[in-house]
Design a protein that fits this description.
single chain; about 240 residues; alpha/beta; Rossmann fold; six-stranded mixed beta sheet; four-stranded antiparallel beta sheet; about 25% strand; binds adenosine-5'-diphosphate; binds magnesium ion
Length: about 240
């Protein structure tokens, strides 16, 4: 009888945390002890009611906030206790973010918005030196998300779905390992939301982009590989995803 030796598999990202917010003298526990792991290439949905702590969980994972107790790990190494500068760099290199309200800069064109991550990452001189290559890369990404015909438009000239596509291109410009999506279809009608989900699913399938998506919409959540649910500050496995 042959025995299979199971190698311990390191998760791409893990989190085991508790987090409260202070309101006056009161401490309000949001995450009471949450354990979450994601493997490379997974597409995971986190569902839960409004106020259940979904955004908080995503912010902790993406180093936008710090846990009170516990830790956040990347490839098995703790990252939440690194010096601020290292955390900024990791956030910029490892994580891409998209949000319900897109957070595009209104005074910049679509193409310029997509260039923001490389402008942040590089010195002014390096950015200037490589600007042509960066612009080409940004255009390619905008083509990929179906916005190749909107390069010089301002965000205010785009539909909601187009704004989210621009935000996705911007997130991809940083070449992230993990895309953190906070209610990415929350402000879109059902049809446009489905199109954005199709785009996310194809990025996951074709580029092995790991995606962690927060949503309160179960039908949207079903499109991921796995669903977890946040309730009363804890995380539980939820139903069967596609
Ligand atoms: P969700 O994204 O599931 O709607 P959130 O993570 O945004 O939930 O918020 C969870 C709870 O934490 C809410 O009660 C919210 O009011 C509170 N909260 C979130 N961020 C802060 C903050 N920066 N300061 C104080 N309370 C906060
Ligand atoms: Mg939220």
């Amino acid at each position: 009888m042959s025995e299979t030796i199971k190698m311990p598999q390191t998760h791409l990202a893990s989190l085991a945390v508790a987090k409260s917010y202070s309101k006056g003298e009161h401490k309000i526990p949001v995450l009471r002890g949450v354990d979450f792991h994601v493997r490379r290439g997974e597409f995971v949905s986190i569902i839960g009611q409004s106020g259940s702590g979904k955004s908080t969980l995503l912010h902790l994972l993406g180093l936008l906030d710090s846990p009170d107790v516990g830790e956040v790990q990347l490839y098995g190494h703790r990252i939440d206790d690194l010096p601020a500068r290292s955390r900024d760099e990791l956030r910029n290199r490892v994580f891409g973010f998209i949000f319900q309200f897109y957070h595009l800069l209104p005074e910049l064109s679509v193409l310029e918005n997509v260039l923001i991550p490389v402008m942040i990452r590089h010195s002014l001189w390096d950015f200037w030196k490589h600007r042509k290559a960066f612009r080409e890369q940004a255009k390619e990404l905008l083509n990929k998300v179906g916005l190749g015909h909107r390069l010089t438009h301002r965000p205010s000239e785009l539909s909601g779905g187009e704004m989210q596509r621009a935000a996705i291109a911007r997130a991809l410009m940083g070449n992230p390992e993990v895309l953190l999506a906070d209610e990415p279809t929350g402000n879109l009608d059902a049809e446009t939301g489905a199109e954005i989900m199709e785009l996310l699913s194809s990025l996951n399938a074709q580029n092995e982009l790991t995606i962690i998506m927060v949503t309160h919409d179960e039908a949207i959540a079903q499109l991921a590989h796995r669903i977890v649910r946040l309730a009363e500050g804890r995380l539980e496995a939820w139903g069967e995803a596609a």
